[in-house]
Write a structure and sequence with these properties.
With 955 residues, the chain is mostly helical. The protein contains 50 helices and no strands. The longest helix has 39 residues, at 122-160.
Length: 955
């Protein structure tokens, strides 16, 4: 029987929506235009991210806190649980959005998650269960280790930080043995609680001076009487007596300061314990008084270094710095104590032991260094320091040998002990040293030097086996052969050595081998030096660069004083370039400067053998024979030269000069006649006229000059000599005519213009001379000599303003002329000379005339050293100008000594000056012909002394 079907119960009402936070409408509403928050109270507007808004509107999310209890478990995806209505209540779109009040989630961040809207189904629950089981399994695997580590950390913490009850546990157990009497004898403890203590406000007020003065007067000891008391006989005390200084306290204070200074003097680093009775006052005076600031700095540094040594006691520099600070502060004992602690903390650091040895007294230093070598037996520096502390060589040797027992491979110790030993002991020690240090070449070479010839060869052979790439062994072997007279073996040894080194793959460094050659020369092994140069000079040099490179190497060696090396380089270069005249000349100059006469003659003889057409080599050989006083040999050389070069005018003139300078005018005249017959040049005619002038044959001189001018009308020296001859014999009109004719052929010849102007000034006065000089300047512009002649002519006639005007124009036209600037310096008044010399140096710094003028200024101002320096600079820049040498020699005669005078005279003779205004006037005078350089120099000095300089404005 079927009954009525029961109706299902109605579904339960949906759960109430969770409470949402109250949101205010004005927060979501748009602010009015131009609204700035806080503008009324003075705030300035700014824009933040909240003003701009997010990139897209985020939906409001529901608050999960209210439904957390009723909601089912949520897995990793945090999807919705099944059965939850997706639609929810109205505004569901907003509930799915972002809630501003939700907290930050470490897994999801501030967002709701990627799967916030997904369903949480059985698969999610199963996956969460699997992951949970895995986490539990992994946790069980690590549990034992984690618990053990945690237990160990707890025990370690409790051991380092025990509780108070644990600390006093043993004492509590001992309380059972305390008797009644002991218990009662324990004093009562007072009330030290902070509760009963009240902080008092403490104020500090400066004590009045009157109170301090009164306290001082009560305690002072008066040891002197006041004048008023002495006036009263010492029986009255004036009522207004001024307090007298405590002289006793002053004396005690001075004694204390003196004792402190003496204590510091009596205890120094060197261990001095006795004050020098003679020099202690000087020592006290020289002591530095430390200021309060320095004391404060020392205290700060001491505090800092104490922190360094306490926090890191194994840091050696901290202990050393602390000890040195105390030493600077004068507390030597504290410094020693600190460095001793440093040695205890850092026993393996040799610097600490060195510092301790330095700070210790001489008696204690040995003990300190002994402890150091005991702590660090392998320290070479400590063993050397220990040997240095010993006084006798025997004790030093003992210490070093003890060190070698610990460090047998120390080369420094071996060298030190060998230096202290005699020859026999040194040989034995070196035998042992090369066994212990077979790879050190110096020990092998030292042993070879001490052995006999045969034993030394064996030693060097052994050394070559051990060190097959060491060039010094081969060089020493060559020196050994040279020292024993085996000159033929020297080259063989060096050549074999270079081939052996090249087989071993060693690159031959030419520069290094040349230095070895120089070292061999300094050691006296000349043959070894030559062999090294011969075998290595061409290594790595291209064929086209050989001449230039070898000459440069020889010049560098010559500058360094390695004459034999330079000679060997030139010898090798000449063996390759037999026909190079320049190399023969440089080799001859080397022999002339540093060789003997025989060596110079030998190299010149070889030079003319290989270069018979080189005139300069023949002339150099003849001149050297002439200077040596061997005139016949010089004639023979010139005859050989004439046979080799029959038409050489230089050889003809050299032969003429040889005869002329040796007072053989007839032979000189014959040589010049033959030269003229063979078609000599203008120089032959000029020399012929000079010979006739010397002999006084005026007619013959005129004939030769006129014939020479017919052949060579453009040679100005013939015109000049003819005009000077006419002027010398008083024919001024003829001289003027000669000069004018000469200027027609040589209009740019400055000496002719100057001679004509000088002649016109003497004959017709200044105006005619001025006209000729003006004409000369127009035809030869920018010529300083013409301007200077015009200026001097005006000065000779007293036209100072005209001379100044001409000088100004001259300096505008010739701005870098040294002779004009020198004249300008001499013409201005003395106060303006310094500024004028400064301008001159700016315009032409390296002009010798300006430098000589500046040297005169220093000379007049008694600045001797500066004047000597500038004069030396002038003769260095222009050694061919004799006027500067005369000025320099005159200066040395006045302010120098015999040594400086001889030096200037020697340098002048070597320079052989030929030019100079005063020098040429004296040297070319007929009465001074054939005079040596030193005689002419003295004559020029006398002329300078007797000459009155009209150019100077002031004396």
């Amino acid at each position: 029987m079927s009954g009525p079907v029961p109706t299902p119960p109605p579904p339960p009402p949906p759960a109430a929506a969770p409470a949402r936070p109250v949101r205010y409408d004005f927060l979501n509403s748009k602010p009015p235009p131009n609204y700035v928050a806080g503008l009324g109270r003075g705030a300035t507007g700014f824009t933040t991210r909240s003003d701009i808004g997010p990139a897209r509107a985020a939906p409001d999310l529901p608050d999960r806190s209210a439904t957390a209890a009723a909601a089912p478990a949520v897995g990793r995806g945090r999807g919705k649980p099944p059965g939850e209505d997706e639609g929810g209540d109205e505004g569901g779109d907003e509930e799915k959005g972002y809630d501003e009040n939700q907290k930050f989630d470490e897994f999801e961040g501030n967002d709701a998650g990627l799967f916030s809207n997904a369903d949480y189904d059985d698969d999610d629950r199963e996956a969460d269960a699997v992951w949970e089981s895995i986490d539990q399994r992994m946790d069980l695997r690590r549990k034992d280790r984690r618990e053990a580590r945690l237990k160990q950390e707890i025990e370690k913490y409790r051991a380092s930080n025990p509780k108070i009850t644990e600390q006093f546990a043993d004492l509590k157990r001992k309380l059972a043995d305390v008797s009644v009497q002991e218990w009662e004898s324990i004093p009562e403890i007072g009330d030290y609680s902070a509760r009963n203590k009240k902080k008092r406000f403490e104020s500090f007020v400066p004590v009045p001076d009157t109170l301090l003065e009164k306290a001082r007067q009560e305690q002072e000891h008066v040891t002197a009487l006041d004048p008023k008391s002495r006036a009263a006989g010492g029986t009255e005390t004036p009522w207004a007596q001024t307090p007298v200084t405590d002289l006793t306290a002053v004396g005690e204070g001075r004694g204390t300061v003196l004792s402190l200074k003496l204590d510091r003097l009596s205890d120094s680093v060197s261990g001095l314990t006795v004050v020098d009775p003679k020099g202690y006052l000087t020592d006290l005076k020289s002591m530095k008084i430390t200021s309060d600031a320095e004391i404060s700095d020392i205290k700060k540094a001491r505090l800092l270094l104490r922190s360094v040594t306490q926090t890191n006691p194994k840091h050696p520099p901290g202990w050393i710095a602390a000890a040195r600070l105390e030493e600077v502060a004068g507390k030597l004992q504290s410094a020693r104590q600190l460095i001793q602690r440093g040695c205890e903390e850092c026993p393996k650091n040799e610097d600490v032991w060195f510092e301790a040895c330095r700070l210790a007294s001489p008696d204690e230093a040995k003990a300190v260094i002994a402890r150091g070598v005991k702590a660090i037996p392998n320290s070479v520096k400590l063993w050397l320091q220990a040997a240095k502390l010993e006084t006798s060589d025997l004790n030093k040797s003992r210490v070093l040998r003890k060190g070698l027992e610990h460090i047998p491979d120390s080369v420094r110790l071996w060298k030190a002990v060998v230096e202290l030993a005699n020859e026999e002991d040194a040989r034995m020690l070196l035998h042992r040293a090369v066994e212990c240090c077979p790879l050190h070449v110096e020990l092998w070479l030292a042993l070879a030097r001490l052995e006999t010839y045969d034993q030394a060869k064996k030693v060097l052979n052994k050394a070559r086996e051990k060190l097959n790439k060491e060039p010094a062994i081969w060089i020493t072997a060559a020196k050994l052969e040279e020292a024993n007279g085996n000159t033929q073996s020297v080259n063989k040894v060096i050549e074999r050595g270079i081939r052996s080194l090249q087989r071993e793959g060693l690159d031959i460094d030419r520069e290094a081998w040349l230095k070895e050659a120089e070292a061999a020369e300094r050691a006296g092994s000349v043959l070894t030096c030559q062999a090294i140069v011969k075998s290595t000079i061409g290594v790595g040099v291209e064929d086209e660069d050989r001449k230039r490179t070898w000459v440069a190497d020889a010049e560098e060696c010559k500058k360094r004083g390695s004459i034999e090396t330079a000679r060997a380089i030139y010898a090798h270069a000449l063996s390759v370039f037999l026909g190079k005249k320049s190399i023969w000349l440089k080799a001859a100059q080397l022999e002339k400067s540093h060789g003997t006469g025989e060596s110079l003659e030998a190299i010149l003889r070889k030079a003319v053998t290989y270069n018979p057409k080189a005139e300069v080599l023949w002339l150099m050989g003849a001149k050297e024979k002439w200077l040596a006083g061997d005139v016949p040999s010089a004639r023979a050389i010139l005859q050989e030269a004439y046979a080799a070069i029959p038409n050489s005018e230089e050889i003809w003139l050299a032969a003429f000069k040889l005869e002329f300078e040796n007072n053989e005018p007839e032979r000189a005249r014959m040589l010049l006649a033959k030269a003229r017959e063979r078609g000599g040049t203008e120089r032959v005619w000029m020399k012929s006229a000079i010979v006739e002038r010397e002999l006084g044959n005026v007619d013959e001189e005129r004939r030769l000059l006129e014939e020479g001018l017919k052949l060579f009308p453009s040679f100005f020296k013939l015109w000049l000599m003819l005009g000077q001859m006419e002027d010398r014999i008083g024919h001024a009109a003829k001289a003027k005519e000669v000069y004018e004719n000469g200027l027609k052929h040589c209009p740019s010849c400055i000496p002719l213009w100057l001679s004509l102007a000088s002649l016109e000034e003497r004959i017709n006065g200044l105006s005619k001379s001025r006209a000729f000089l003006t004409m000369a300047r127009k035809k030869n512009p920018a010529t300083p000599e013409l301007w200077l002649a015009a200026i001097r002519a005006e000065l000779r006639h007293g036209n100072k303003k005209e001379a100044d005007s001409l000088l100004a124009k001259a300096l505008q036209e010739c701005q870098t002329s040294g002779i004009l600037w020198a004249a300008a310096i001499e013409m201005v008044p003395r106060p303006q000379r310094k500024s004028k010399s400064s301008d001159a140096i700016k315009r032409c710094d390296h002009d010798p005339h300006v430098i000589a003028a500046v040297a005169k200024l220093f000379w007049h101002d008694r600045k001797v050293d500066k004047a000597r320096s500038w004069l030396n600079r002038a003769v260095t820049l222009a050694p061919d100008i004799g006027d500067f040498w005369a000025l320099f020699y005159k200066f040395e005669l006045q302010h120098g000594n015999p040594d400086t005078q001889r030096d200037v005279l020697k340098r002048c003779i070597a320079a052989e000056p030929k030019h100079g205004e005063r020098w040429q006037a004296i040297s070319k005078a007929v009465e001074n012909s054939h005079q040596p350089v030193d005689a002419i120099l003295r004559r020029v000095v006398l002329a300078l002394g007797a000459e009155e300089n009209p150019n100077a404005a002031e004396p």
